Amino acid sequence: MAMRDLIPWGRQETRLPTLFRDEERSPFMRLRREMDRMFEDLANAPLFSGMGGLSWPALEVSDADNEVRVTAEVPGLGEKDVEVLAQDGVLTIRGEKKSESEDRRRGWSERYYGRFERNIALPDGADEAQAEASFHDGVLTIRMPKTAEATRSRKIPINAATRH
């Protein structure tokens, strides 16, 4: 073996078949592009989109002249699984979901555990002391009146039976 064969920039020819030299037709390059695309799609999937910016639960925030209303969709959770806090101009909705299922006859079990937290900046004048939260059919609704002299800290209890 000549020393020239060990230096990549000194070679005059390559020993790779023509098929692999052409980047557009190379099966290895095609595999790499498909793998890159797969990981990009996976990173943008709803399950993992929370890594960059959590988007669960889905929220709807409306800011009217006399009140702020936040609606969060939390299917499969109860009012005891969700906590709502209002402090220093930020509304925090957090909770956790635990699920376990087992079929001994077929020999399988499945467990799921997940936590979430969403923080919403409240507009000026939102009265955190007068905030109310209700929970009905997996939808959490928080209403906060707007006043000029609003206080800035309060834990908000959730009422299961009320519907707005």
Polypeptide structure, described:
By secondary structure, this protein is of the alpha+beta class. The chain has 2 domains: 3-43, no CATH class; 56-159, Immunoglobulin-like. Helix content is 15%, strand content 40%. It contains 3 helices and 9 strands; from the N terminus they run αααβββββββββ. It has helices at 18-21, 27-43, 50-53, and strands at 58-63, 67-73, 82-87, 90-103, 108-121, 132-136, 139-145, 153-156, 158-159. The strands form 2 sheets. It has a 5-stranded mixed β-sheet, with no helix packed on it. A hairpin with a 3-residue loop joins strand 1 (58-63) and strand 2 (67-73). The longest helix has 17 residues, at 27-43. It is elongated. The termini are far apart. Residues 48-54 have low confidence and may be disordered.
Please render the helix and strand layout as text:
Elements: H1 18-21, H2 27-43, H3 50-53, E1 58-63, E2 67-73, E3 82-87, E4 90-103, E5 108-121, E6 132-136, E7 139-145, E8 153-156, E9 158-159
Parallel strand pairs: 6-9
Antiparallel strand pairs: 1-2, 2-7, 3-4, 3-8, 4-5, 6-7
Main β-sheet: number of strands, strand sense, barrel status?
Answer: 5 strands, mixed
Order of helices and strands: HHHEEEEEEEEE
CATH class of the largest domain: Mainly Beta
Report the mean per-residue pLDDT as an integer.
77
Binned, the helix content reads: 10-25%
Q: What is the structural class?
A: alpha+beta
Domain module count: 2
In the CATH hierarchy, the architecture of the largest domain is Sandwich
With helices defined by DSSP (H or I, 4 residues minimum), what is the helix count? 3
Low-confidence stretches: 48-54
| Biggest sheet: strand arrangement | 1-2-7-6-9
Oligomer class = single chain
